[in-house]
Structures are given as structure tokens and as C-alpha cells.
Design brief:
The chain is an alpha/beta fold and about 325 residues long. The chain folds into two domains: about 160 residues, ATPase, nucleotide binding domain (Nucleotidyltransferase, domain 5); about 160 residues, Nucleotidyltransferase, domain 5. The protein contains nine helices and twelve strands. The strands form three sheets. The protein has a five-stranded mixed beta sheet, sandwiched between helices. The relative contact order is 0.19. Bound molecules: adenosine monophosphate (AMP) and magnesium ion. The site of adenosine monophosphate has 17 residues, from α4 and α5. The site of magnesium ion (MG) has 4 residues, from α3.
């Protein structure tokens, strides 16, 4: 069985092709960049993605050495995401499904990040820490769905790091620059904001800006920001591990690249006897393969998206999606 997946929730348009065994046959992507080389303008996404989608599709089909008729299921990212971007993938998917008489599967983007992570790290039932520019969530499978057991109450961690970097006049993405500066810093006092299993980062950003204006060393501010923000995340992740009695942690999303963050998670996991995994760098970002794989899992479990149910779902939360392939691992929260 072969699944073709189309990703187009934000800056990336991607076409991925995968087989039933998780063999990646093609992975074509293109990311919109502004002239300054970073970021994107939401209203321009439609044009960018539209222009390049068919080219990427042709390349992917060539790379996989198949024809479109060999594809068993057409998968597309249905949400959550930016409507202008989502519409390109959804339209292409509908066209292919109708023209070639293939089943259509709308995939939740967040679920796809988890599923490609599980596939590539061979984790079974992890507590997932999803930390990117647009998300900060602690997610795990409970009773038929992935549940968000902890999340940011304001801005995502990647966004907080980018904002601090922008304030320091560094270009996007700012995370790597903050990481570099932090290596030479020492600790100064920072607010630590954990509420139950939730975290909040906007106060940390405000505090960091205030310290810099006061003349504190940039390195010290970056170091302390990281130590505090990462410790908050480690604490809530540990709480979710304890509550659910799970023994695997999987970190996905762009911020997972941070070496200090990895180290802090690794220490906590070691102390708890849990396995620690990070999604491979190449598949940390948005891609069509993760959509293809999740579409294939869905299709094998009887999930098909009818044409009149294929409209984009801008705010489709991960916990609204049934994931029957995880059912055998069901646990109940006490
Ligand atoms: P994504 O949204 O998954 O594409 O991830 C992008 C986010 O990851 C941006 O906010 C980046 O600043 C952040 N990021 C990338 N590399 C690092 C790093 N080494 N340390 C911290 N954050 C990072
Ligand atoms: Mg994403």
C-alpha cells in the first residue's frame, strides 16, 4: 500500500510518498521565504504554494519511481493551519482523488508530527513534547485520542526565543543564536511560571528585555532564560509521565534541536528510568512524509474523508482526532 501526502499548513509545501512498512519513497518540499530570508507573509502563501505544488508532485512521483495510479490513498493536511496555505494542499488532494478515483484522507498536522516521530524513533506510547515556533504542548495518548495534558498559556517556546532574539537584533530563527549566547552565560534570577501542567513564557520574555535594558550581560540573560524555560518544560513533562505511568519521552518540533534542552530532558528521563528520543532533525520540520504516513495509518483503520467533509479546519485541535491505531495501548487516567 502506498500513500501520497500533501503538507501545506504554513510556510512549507511538501509532497511525501511512503509505503506500508514506513519506507520513505519521496520527500519533496519548498519553504516560502521573504527577501530577508526568513519568515513568511500569510497572504502570499497561497501564491507561493500554488505555483510550486504541481512541480513538487511530479518530482515526488519520479523520485518514488511510481505513477500516480500506484498510489492507494491521497492524504493531505486538513488543519490546523493558515487558511491560505491549507487551501492549496486541500484543492490539489481533492483534484487527485477525483481524477484518479482514490480515497482521500484529511490528516491533523499535529498528529502527523507525532506519528512520524514514533515511526522514526520506534517509540510506542510516548509522552510527546511538541515545541516549535507555533506550538508548546505536552501530549500523550489516553482513551482513543492524543490528549494535551499540558501547554503554554500564552506564547509558544520557539516564538519566545525568536522574540528575544529579535529584540537583540538577530535574524529569524532566533533559537540557535540564543543557544550560542547562552553557552557563555551564568545564572541571574528569572520568574519561573508553572501552573499545574501548564507553562507561560511571555513573562520571561518581558523580564529578559527589562534586564537587557538595565545593562545585564546578554549571555547571562540568554543562559538564564533557557535554563528557566527548559526547567519549566521538564517539570511538567515529568508530572505527565508520573500521572500516566508511561516510560518514553519523545520531543518533536524545531526547538528540539537545542542541545541544552536535550541534556536536561535526558537527565530527567534517566532518573525516572524512561527512554528519551528526539525526532530526527530532517523530519522535525513540516513535511509531506508525515502526512502520507498518518494518512496511511488512518486509511488502514477505516478512516476516509468524504469530499463534502474535506474543507480545511483552521483550528483543528489534536484532541479532536480519533487515533484507532493506538487503541491497543489504551490507558485510563486515575
Ligand atoms: P518549527 O516551528 O518546528 O519549524 O521550529 C522553528 C522554531 O524552532 C523557531 O522558533 C526556532 O527559533 C526554533 N529553534 C530552531 N533551532 C533551535 C535551537 N537550536 N534552539 C532553540 N530553538 C531553536
Ligand atoms: Mg509543524
Amino acid at each position: 500500500m502506498i500513500s501520497l501526502g500533501i503538507e501545506s499548513t504554513a510556510h512549507t509545501i511538501g509532497i511525501g510518498i511512503i509505503d506500508e512498512n514506513g519506507g520513505i519513497l519521496a520527500d519533496e518540499r519548498d519553504m516560502m521565504k521573504t527577501k530577508e530570508g526568513s519568515g513568511f507573509i500569510p497572504r502570499e502563501l497561497f501564491e507561493h504554494h500554488q505555483k510550486i505544488a504541481v512541480d513538487l508532485l511530479k518530482k515526488a512521483i519520479d523520485k518514488a519511481e511510481i505513477t500516480i495510479r500506484d498510489v492507494d490513498v491521497i492524504s493531505f493536511s486538513q488543519g490546523m493551519g493558515i487558511p491560505n496555505a491549507l487551501r492549496v494542499g486541500a484543492s490539489l488532494a481533492r483534484y487527485l482523488a477525483i481524477k484518479y478515483k482514490k480515497p482521500l484522507v484529511g490528516v491533523n498536522h499535529g498528529v502527523a508530527h507525532i506519528e512520524i516521530g514514533r515511526l522514526l524513533t520506534k517509540t510506542k506510547d510516548p509522552v510527546v513534547v511538541y515545541i516549535s515556533g507555533g506550538n508548546t504542548q505536552i501530549i500523550t495518548y489516553v482513551d482513543g485520542r492524543y490528549r494535551i495534558l499540558g501547554e503554554t498559556e500564552d506564547i509558544p517556546l520557539g516564538n519566545a526565543l525568536d522574540e528575544l532574539a529579535r529584540f537583540l537584533n538577530y535574524p529569524m530563527p532566533g533559537g540557535p543564536k540564543i543557544e550560542e549566547l547562552a553557552k557563555k552565560g551564568k545564572y541571574v534570577d528569572f520568574p519561573y511560571v508553572v501552573k499545574g501542567s501548564n507553562v507561560s513564557f511571555s513573562g520571561l520574555v518581558t523580564h529578559a528585555k527589562r534586564l537587557i535594558k538595565k545593562g545585564f550581560k546578554v549571555e547571562d540573560v540568554c543562559f538564564s532564560f533557557q535554563e528557566t524555560a527548559f526547567a519549566m518544560l521538564v517539570e511538567v513533562t515529568e508530572r505527565v509521565l508520573a500521572h500516566t505511568e508511561k516510560n518514553e519521552v519523545l520531543v518533536v518540533g524545531g526547538v528540539a534541536r537545542n542541545k541544552r534542552l536535550q541534556e536536561m530532558f535526558r537527565i530527567m528521563c534517566k532518573e525516572r528510568g524512561a527512554r528519551f528520543e528526539i525526532v530526527p532533525f530532517k523530519y522535525a520540520g513540516d513535511n509531506g512524509v508525515m502526512i502520507a504516513w498518518t494518512g496511511l495509518l488512518s486509511y488502514k483503520h477505516g478512516i476516509i474523508t468524504k469530499m463534502d467533509e474535506s474543507k480545511i479546519l483552521q483550528k483543528w485541535r489534536i484532541d479532536e482526532v480519533e487515533v484507532p491505531w493506538m487503541k491497543s495501548r489504551s490507558i485510563h487516567l486515575r
